Amino acid sequence: MRYFLELAYNGKNYFGYQIQPNQISVQEVIEDRLSKILRKKISIVGAGRTDAGVHAKKMYIHFDYEEELDVDLIKKLNSFLPKDIAVYRLFLMDDDAHARFDATSRSYNYFLSPVKDPFLFESAWNFHRSLDIEKMNNAAKLLIKKGDFGSFAKLHTDVKTNICDVTAAFWRKNENGQLIFEITADRFLRNMVRAIVGTLVDIGLGKISIEEFSEIIEQKQRSSAGASAPAHGLYLVDVQYPKELFKNEFK
Q1: What is the pTM of this model?
Q2: Residue from 51, 102, 202, 238 carrying the catalytic annotation
């Protein structure tokens, strides 16, 4: 039977989600704990591959197990996982449901703190210079399309296409005065959100114009865009799937 787990993690202590040689990863830790609890080798597949230091407020993984599970698995996993990984929900799925390929959209938030805050320096980009948010939002509108986002993609990756369908991209302020960039697409390229944020900040600083931002998108060259924003400000916040894939949630 195929199961989905909904989970969250603080990425500070991990070299990204995906298993890496000689580096600790979120995938490695979860597979280890699941295998010990279920007493057999368990392999998991995630909805995405967050980079080193990036967090997830909502991530899904799938795994196969021949016996029927129940909500007790969540309790056992949470007691066995480190404090920076938490499991929230368990679902029985269609047998061919896939955490990565069946996802219809993914959403990220990037947090930028305009004031020095001793409680936020590890969870947001502390950026103390004045930014033109209106210009940044006008530029972000140019991202809302289906197109080639190679200008914001990490070089030398194994992806077959840089085409993404971005359906939302905008900046807002929260009650703490933080700036939050929200973006939703069917898929994301490695480093894409951080490269976009870094380039939009250049617009907010007046280093480049909205017209130049449009040209950067069209050039499809990573060297054209700005520097990537720090990893610790980025959060995967949502992944959406067709509802018909979910057969049962264990409560």
Answers
A1: 0.95
A2: 51
